[in-house]
Amino acid sequence: MAALPDTAALEDSPLRLRARASDPDGDEVRFSLAHGPAWLSIDPSSGLISGVPDDPDVGVWEVTAEASDGRLTASRTFRVAVRNRPPSFEGVPRRRGRVGIGYQDTLRAHNLDGGSVRLTDGPPGLEMEGTLLRWRPSASGRWSVTVLAQDPHGGEATLSWEVEALPLPFVVVDEVLADPPRGAGGDANGDGRGDGGEDEFIELLNAGPDAAALGGLNLGPEGTSGARLFRFPEGTAVPPGGRFLVFGGGAPGDFPCPVFVAGGRIGRGLSADGGVVLLTDPAGPDTLLRAAFPGRGRGQSWVRRSGSLPSAQEDKKNGPVTQGQDAFVLHGDLPGRDRFSPGRPRLLLIGLSVAAETTMAVGRRRPFKVMGIFNDGVQEIVTERVTIITSDTSVLRTEGDDRLVGVGEGRSSVRARFEEIEGVAEVRVVSRRVIVTRGRPPSEGRQSDSLLSSVGASPVRDTATAGADYRLRTESLPGGQWEVVEGPAWLAVEPETGDLVGSPPGEGIFQVILSGEDSTGQAALVVVTLTARPEAERHERGPPEEGPPGDDGDELAKKIRQRKGEADSDEAAVPSARPSGADPPSQGRPAEGGEIALASNYPNPFNGTTVFRCRSPTPGRAEIYTLLGRCVRRWVEVGAAETSLVWDGRDASGKTLPSGVYFLVFEAEGVRAVRRMTLIR
């Protein structure tokens, strides 16, 4: 039998060597192992010694092989040294994560032999359990990561790589059309023909403060394989507030935002029964956006409900962005909307106002309107899905959606509500009775009028002469007394007669409210609009003109203009103090040359500040009045050349004024221009 040399083997690697022997008599020789480790074996016929040592087999083994012809035996002894195979890593770990989304990866480590893998370097918050890495990045950045693998025999391996945490794009689904109407009416992509697959679209909005990098991200319905998902081209980025569209296919027309086209459908197509839209990062894989939209849109798109941005994005640590079905409404459910509006601004309801008489009588039915205020400044009457209630049904109740009924004396609010948007009007209900007679002293050489005004009817309008005594005769209340609730300081109630008396120090428009109660508890109220003019002008102009709208609202002002043959407009019917024969100032744009004018304010309606532009050859005066004629703000020495006035919705003392209609009156060289505005809180 030939000698066998000492040899070496590597853990987990096969060992092969052959024993050789011969017999002089030509007898058959058989081989066997008389001594050796269990992992080694020998072929009896060929003498091939083979085996694969494992981790426990690391070390030096003595092996004895024998050869026999059945009668005699020969043997040889040799040593096998099994060396340790050190740990190793396979593959490349994840190199990218997203802020606010859990990062997770399992390292593929080999030959640990009961050893361990530990983290030696990495970003804050990165944890390791066995070979599993877990991390939720709280900030964007790039970090180095190093792990060390060690086995019980002293073998070790190191793996290092860089991991990057990218910002989580604050992207939401703003509109989705999954059920385009048939025919030309369903041509959402604007290519001139309707196609159920090509015209479906998803409109996304970057609602975050930073640009959203979308290159390489996938978009499509949940459950769609990666090959069918739409993938944004590399380098795609959307600025803050930007929108972008993904159509199913076709050749989209012009849109005011970036447009992308899928391959005929988005994924396998958006389901008309509703579904879930996912924006994913395949490098994670991470889900960045999950939006569930309802089904059966009846040919309309589903749009994001106003104010429904996910609150989880306020700190960007609780991603992904999630939108439930309750975050969407049908496109046509809000007033002023079409069936769909991809990439275009929509008319959004931003405010409500209730136009109602502030005073009405018990038993009277008076109309009211709920006006919707849209983000383009347009106001329209709205009724659908608007809830209307009164705060005290024993005082006031509604009849239908456009009429109020006075039930009993007192005060009640009328509140209109659409989702989170509200509008309120305060109404006072009083007893129904005649309360005032308008007349003039006989000394003026004019016979007294017998015009009567009832509670809830149009306000009494009268004129006075600046610097002269004025008297408004009233009916005294039996056992009661009139009181001036609001009015200029120079007016008072004469105790003996109950008449309203005083002497206006100068020209102007004054609103006066009188109230009283008789011995039986019957309440009475009257509103007087008083215009004080110079003596000469009073004789030149003749009968008094109507003043601005009072408590009876815009409808009364419109009737006054129609009765006088004036064109209906949004401007207040405020008397102009221009000299006889002078042309009225321009009301729509700044004046040119020596013309006096006041341009429309912008924005209107407004809830922060609004700006007016005025011009006149010489400085003038600008004042802001309430509907009741009370001056709340004044500017003097303005308007020489072109001047911009900014009003912040506060009075002269800095107090915030409530929502309502206000008037800006600009006067210079005896000419007056008026603009009307709506303040919304």
Automatic annotation (TrEMBL):
InterPro entries: Cadg (IPR006644), Cadherin-like_sf (IPR015919), Ig-like_fold (IPR013783), Lamin_tail_dom (IPR001322), Lamin_tail_dom_sf (IPR036415), Secre_tail (IPR026444). GO terms for cellular component: membrane. SMART domains: CADG. SUPFAM superfamilies: Cadherin-like (SSF49313), Lamin A/C globular tail domain (SSF74853). Residues 534-544, 555-567 have a biased composition (Basic and acidic residues). It holds the Pfam family He_PIG. NCBIfam families: Por_Secre_tail. This is LTD domain-containing protein.
